[in-house]
Structure formats: C-alpha cells, structure tokens
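Write out the 3D structure for:
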Amino acid sequence: MDIFGRDANSVDVGKQLRIMREERNISMRSLARTSGLSANALSMIERGLTSPSVSTLTKLADALQVPITAFFRSEPTKQKIVYKKASERTRIPFNRGLWEGLGGEQFNGHLEAFSLTLENGASSGPNSLLHTGHEFVFCVRGLLEYDVDGQIFYLEPGDSLIFAAKLPHKWKNTGGKVTSAIIVIAGFEDSERPSEFHLAATSGDENITIEKY
C-alpha cells in the first residue's frame, strides 16, 4: 500500500503525468524547466521505467498546479444521475481544511460540486485562481471571505455568490470559528477539472491523503 492508502500497482502514475501534461499543452522540456527535474527523468517516469518519489511528485504537482493527489486519481464511470450518500463521499484533507466531493466527479456533464470545511485562517493560498465556467458559492456556517477580481465579499450563513470563474478569485476563513461552504462550478471546458485548481492552491503538502469514509 502507498501513502495514499491504495495499491501502488493499480495506479499508473506515469500515464497520469502524461495526461495532465498534454491536457495543459506543456512540453516535456518546459515541465522539466519549471519542476527542476531533467527531461530524461520525466521521460522515464511517463514510460513507467521508474517510480517517482513523493518529493519528485510534489515538484511536479507544483509545476502543473495540481494537488499531489491528482497523480493517484482514477477516472470514475460517468453517469447521467449521481446519488451520493454522505458516507460515500471522497474526502481530501488539506492544510487547515477538508474538501468533500458531492458527486460531480462522477457526473456526465460540465458540473462539479464540493464542500469546503475550513479552520480559522485557512485559505486558498496567496495566488488567485481562475478557470473556465461559472462558480456558485453558498456559505453554510462561519464567515467566508471571497476576493473576486479585487472585490471583497463577506459571506455569512445563508449568503451566496455567483461569478464568472475566469475572474481571478481566492477565498479565506476570516472568522474565529470553523467555516463550511458549498461550491458548484459549471460550464467549464472538457479539459479542465476546476475542483483541482482549488485543491492545488491549498495543498502542496506531501502528507495529504485521499480517504473514503
């Protein structure tokens, strides 16, 4: 078993690396430059000739701007109707928070829904996020600060926010208590997985794990 609680032999990390690199139209030479790894090392990983260490995957995740968990994801069967029990959610803890999938990862359409639970001070990081589609935010509890293209919005329980996701945005729990929010992203391009943009900003920690409850 690997550190992500999965059978290491069931996950083709090299294939996932190649898919993510090609999705972003990044050449191997360019990825080598931004990650600090050699093109030869990347080639060997993509061809399955060598297994990357956690530190190597962390460098690649930073260069691709995805969470390290993206290398271990499996593509679920897409469905027209998704019924998700609370006990079946995919849960990914990150620094001072928790991401929970609400079935969008299995839906056969351009829609992703997830919840965020944030401790005091948890944020999406210093850099703004931007991607295609539209984003809907609903604050369930606590106080959530959303910065959208330089405008600051403070969401309290029951408050909502909708904006074009191509606008630079970031979020932070500025209250003294735990904050929870539901986020729905729709209308994004086929090549994008917008929930990973949100996770990439918060992770970067090689101790992150994927858990099924």
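The CA atoms of residues 141 and 157 lie 5 Å apart.
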